[in-house]
Design a protein that fits this description.
With 351 residues, this protein is an alpha/beta fold. It has one domain: TIM Barrel (Alpha-Beta Barrel). It contains 15 helices and 7 strands. A 7-stranded parallel sheet has the order 1-2-3-4-5-6-7, sandwiched between helices. Helix 10 links the parallel strand 3 and strand 4. The mean pLDDT is 96.
Length: 351
Amino acid sequence: MKDFSLEHILSITKDRKPNFENLKAVLRGEAPDRPTLFEFFLNDPLERKIADWPTAPTVKSDEVDYFRCKIQAFRNMGYDYTTIHASNYEFHRGESEAKKTISADHGCVIFDRETFDAYQWEQPDDYYDGRIERLEKYLPDGMKFIVCGPSGVLENLINLVGYTNMCYLAMDDPELLGKVFDHVGQRLYDYYARIINYDSVGAIISNDDWGFNTQTMLSTEDMRKYVFPWHKKIVKLAHDAGKPCILHSCGNLSAVWEDIIEDMQFDAKHSYEDKIQPVEEAYDFLAGRIAVVGGIDIDFVCRSEDQAVYDRCKAMIDKTGCKGYALGTGNSIPEYVPDEKYFAMISAALM
């Protein structure tokens, strides 16, 4: 039985030097010098455990310590980067946003032209206070930031408008819906534009969930009309700066793969679920066209024995040779994922 303990992993990664060029090779569809890891995010308790951080800082209580802990945790686990938000910018929804719900219609604030005109649109530049400059000095040599957004174009619109109302507006007032999409899209573009040219920023993630288990959340025609043009602009922004752009999007996107690869020209796709399409099948379909990052189903990781997690991950590394592939989960590491399962997963790339 292999040793998947944190102590054993730290003994392996202690002298392992970060090198963002490995992940860049994956994003170009090439094989890196060594198996490479990718994760959208870990979770705060896990990061403090990995980094042996004595306190529990938050981004608001102690921003520097919060991100220093995150950087150290990613480095200790063998990643060549850490994800980061460029600022605390978000699309505010007032008091209603504090309520927790699984409904995609709760908390919306734009219903019609009157509420659209009344909404106070804030600018991402007003929130940027030098976070990248302030924190880049804590990056180990060879490590970069990957900047993710405050959610994406479609997610933020649904938060503001509501899913049901969005569907009605697509039929009843498509002009208004287009205006809301454009206000959201432009601000996300500006958010990324503010930081894309920093040397410490190695890539960006355009994170925007587009689908249910069976189809996209809007018709493919409306996705192409409202959502994709802004992602295409964000990808071009990254490419013009010589940086890769990764799509993180949950759901069944089988109807829009050509849009993702040929039109928007994302460098990599993240987020996979076995019940939609196992990552092994996705790689067979996508290899040579777009990089596949992550993909080991979260439910599988949570429910399986440690050795089974390791074996599947090792088989994926062997199958791909890591050519255009980086190992990680299908989504992220929230707190409900047992730490030992996560350690078993990444061990496949480290041992």
